[in-house]
Amino acid sequence: MKKILFICHGNICRSTMAEFVLKDMAAKQGLSHEFEIASAATSREEIGNDTHHGTKRKLDEMGISYTRRKARQMNAADYAYYDYIIGMDDANIRNILRIVGGDAEGKVSKLLDWADDKGDRDDIADPWYTGNFDLTYDDVERGCRGLLGKLKKAK
């Protein structure tokens, strides 16, 4: 089983969106049993809060189910537990590396590094600031599609 942890700043918008999008993709392909998928934050700002209403609204629009959850901050032990630690932007990556003390095993990447269609962005914009959950979803979906495809090929 491959263990994947998505990371963003607060764990209420982008990382939760990626968690539920990848879970949905894996389920539709009959692969749920092959993955453990979760999400966390680099900050403590939203600890205990549920997924942002804008993320829920976009997931509802796309027919993707989600569960009630509580934002949590990642910790150094996550590095040992998870096979893939995937951030949304450069700031997330810097903070992940600070929290876990480096990336000796090469587990840390950005979600759009996995995308087949690289597009013109390599960071996933935070809709908390932009308000654009559509753009965030498009990038998350593209990254998750590429990630799942590459993980399936690596089996």
From TrEMBL:
The residue ranges crossing the membrane are none
Domain Phosphotyrosine protein phosphatase I residues, every copy: 2-150
**Which Pfam family is one of this chain's hits?**
LMWPc
Question: Which InterPro entries does this UniProt record tie to the protein?
Answer: LMW_PTPase, Ptyr_pPase, Ptyr_pPase_sf, Tyr_phospatase_low_mol_wt
Catalytic activity reads: O-phospho-L-tyrosyl-[protein] + H2O = L-tyrosyl-[protein] + phosphate
Q: What is its EC number?
A: 3.1.3.48
Q: Which UniProt keywords apply?
A: Hydrolase, Protein phosphatase
User: Into which family does the record put it?
Assistant: Belongs to the low molecular weight phosphotyrosine protein phosphatase family.
Q: What is this protein called?
A: protein-tyrosine-phosphatase
Q: What organism does this protein naturally occur in?
A: Gallibacter intestinalis
